[in-house]
Specification:
Blueprint (H helix, E strand, L loop, with lengths): L1 H10 L25 H32 L18 H30 L6 E8 L2 E5 L5 E2 L2 E4 L3 E8 L4 E5 L4 E5 L5 E6 L4 E7 L11 E7 L4 H10 L6 H11 L25 E3 L5 E3 L2 H9 L22 H13 L20
Parallel strand pairs: 1-5, 4-10
Antiparallel strand pairs: 1-2, 2-3, 5-8, 6-7, 6-9, 9-10, 11-12
Helix pairs in contact: 2-3, 5-7
Bound molecules: dinuclear copper ion (CUA).
Length: about 350
């Protein structure tokens, strides 16, 4: 446990619960933490101030006219007829808005194209969205549920979804892009400031939509490769059960499976290993190594009675070695951890 706590604190940042209101930034905007943020903000503020300008003129004149030209008594009549045509005025109010709209289009389109075109030398990270969490896979195959990126280097996200449409949004980087099943979408950014920033799903994707809230950690120049190296090999340096606990934390299993016996979307991990479970098809199964492995790789088969078949597969996301560590952890947190081969007899406590 100490080893785990230590490893968590040295290898990953303190678990930050990112809420927009807690960002260190201006009243209007989150911090400008990517190279593109300034450009995006300037386009936004140009449009914003143009709108303020015309709003003030229109509403101001409207108010002025209402007062100045109000009807003052019963006999009040317009002295002159209403003018109904002015070529000069009509050309002016056509040409000025066209010039403004085209200028806004050019500025916006330039920024959009920059955002849509990752530089060739970008560091590529694969992103998978699924109900209801993110997976980030680095070039060496290491997978995390929080995003880690280097500072001062363009990072390209190649993204897809396992189920429904999700959407990656990193407010501090000013990037937002849908993550769509059956195809790949891309976005990129270059982080300017080491730190931790919120990353969230911004496409309503079901019950756990709001759980798809995680963080991006920007590693200081030159330290990212070392972080990746150390994190990738971390599990080999600790006892299997501790490695397993870290994996269930980091992979997000704990969002549905509690570690302390509390009920959740899925069965708790406490006292699970070695116990008997009734399945939805009426049969009974012992949660041994093979059942656990199968539940991770093919979660739609053999559902425990009382639970919905909602777990996504982790085939390809967890390596065999990592599944073994998880099994080791489940053994360590079960009173039957030592004797899987001999399932508890008639008096077995039914675990929910
Ligand atoms: Cu994923 Cu909302």
């Amino acid at each position: 446990m100490n080893g785990l706590t230590q490893a968590l604190t040295t290898s990953s940042p303190a678990p930050v619960r990112p809420f927009l209101a807690q960002l260190p930034d201006s009243f209007w905007m989150p911090a400008q933490a990517s190279t593109m943020a300034g450009e995006v903000d300037s386009v936004f503020f140009i449009i914003y101030w143009i709108s303020v300008f015309f709003f003030a003129i229109i509403v101001g004149l409207m108010g002025l006219f209402v007062v100045r030209y109000r009807r003052r008594g019963h006999g009040d009549q317009a002295v002159e007829g209403t003018p109904h045509h002015s070529t000069a005025l009509e050309i002016t109010w056509t040409v000025i808005p066209i010039v403004i709209s085209v200028a806004i289009f050019i500025l916006g389109f330039k920024s959009y194209m920059n955002l849509a075109t990752p530089p060739r030398n970008s560091y590529e990270i694969m992103v998978t969205g699924q109900k209801w969490q993110w997976f980030f896979e680095y070039p060496n195959g290491f997978v995390t549920s929080e995003l880690h990126v280097p500072e001062d280097r363009p990072v390209k996200l190649t993204m897809t979804s396992e189920d429904v449409i999700h959407s990656v949004w990193i407010p501090a980087f000013r990037v937002k892009k849908d993550v769509v099943p059956g195809r790949y979408t891309y976005t990129w950014f270059e982080a300017k400031e080491p730190g931790t920033y919120p990353l969230l799903c911004t496409e309503y994707c079901g019950t756990g939509h709001s759980d798809m809230l995680t963080v991006v950690t920007v590693h200081q120049s030159g330290t990212f490769d070392r972080w990746l190296q150390e994190s990738s090999n971390l599990y080999d340096t600790m006892p299997p059960a501790e490695a397993g606990e870290m994996i269930v934390q980091r992979t997000g299993c704990v969002q549905c499976h509690s570690l302390d016996g509390k009920s959740g979307i899925g069965p708790t991990f406490e006292n699970l290993f070695g116990h008997e479970f009734k399945l939805t098809d009426g049969s009974t199964v012992v949660a041994d190594e093979n059942y656990i492995r199968k539940s991770i790789v093919e979660p739609m088969s053999d559902i425990v009675l009382g639970y919905e078949p909602v777990m996504p597969t982790y085939a390809g996301k967890l390596k065999d070695q990592e599944i073994s560590y998880i099994i080791a952890y489940l053994k360590s947190s079960s009173d039957l951890g030592g004797s899987a081969a001999e399932p508890a007899a008639a008096d077995s406590t039914e675990v929910e």
